[in-house]
Amino acid sequence: MRTWLITGASSGIGRSVTTRLLEQGDRVAAFVRRPEIFNELSDTYPGKLWVAPVDVTDTRVLRDAVNRAFTDLGKIDVVFSNAGAGAFGAAEELDDSAIEQQLALNLVAPIQLIRAVLPHLRAQGGGRIIQMSTMGGQITSAGGSMYHASKWGIEGFTESVMGEVAPFGIGITLVEPGNVRTAFGAALTIAAPIEAYADTPVGHVRQYIEAAGGNLTGDALGDPARVAEAIIAVSVQSPAPERLVLGSDAHSAIRAALTARLSQLDAGRAVSESTDFPANT
């Protein structure tokens, strides 16, 4: 039996992982906004589900819940930082509150979660952190500027921390799924349109969202149950892989983006080298 701490455990991939873990006999500390959503699971798996009401964007509340979870449960083997949401709109269409909310939930909250759990993981001699990202942490699309900013930001933070904590036996993996059939798309925060963008890539994506009934992920390729299995499996892989790409759409999109980026890098090599101090002759 292992013990997991999961944020965003009430729906989507977080719910799938939580349910599968309980089915296989593990314990879960679930951080959710509404604890009552887990009443049925708590009854089905008595003593296996520890639930705390947590708004992960409130750092004080988050840190207190982390401390209580480690105190009550003892060792926590895996921390799955999964809470997140999306915002859509051109950069100037999104209002200030939407930008603040996106960065608070997708960037600041996981940073603070990792900071909060690290002292406990060091004290217990190691553990595993799984940070949910997305293929959008490696690629970009029109209308997703703030979402991508949050995901590229958490990728940079997490990759840096990997090297910091490896000496303590703490492994970290970034999970980069493509589109998964969850309610993520239906929960998008969509900015009010600016007419100037109507016939631009942003406007075209907006039309696609509207045609999908507001839910971009309703018919997605990704199976949340299979995604959950892959995440659970990677938690015992040693050494911890830096990244786990899930979904054929994610693999294709990320590969294309990295290939194009490498080509652009190589094309500019002469200019890059031209800015060095001249070699001593």
Automatic annotation (TrEMBL):
- Give the SUPFAM superfamilies listed for this entry: NAD(P)-binding Rossmann-fold domains
What InterPro entries has UniProt attached to this entry? NAD(P)-bd_dom_sf, SDR_fam, SDR_oxidoreductase
Q: Which Pfam families match?
A: adh_short
Q: Does the record carry Oxidoreductase as a key word?
A: yes
Keyword line = Oxidoreductase
Family annotation (PANTHER family): SHORT CHAIN DEHYDROGENASE, SHORT-CHAIN DEHYDROGENASE_REDUCTASE FAMILY PROTEIN
- Cite the NCBIfam families for this sequence: PRK06482.1
Q: Which family does it belong to?
A: Belongs to the short-chain dehydrogenases/reductases (SDR) family.
The name of this protein is NAD(P)-dependent dehydrogenase (Short-subunit alcohol dehydrogenase family)
The species this protein belongs to is Conyzicola nivalis
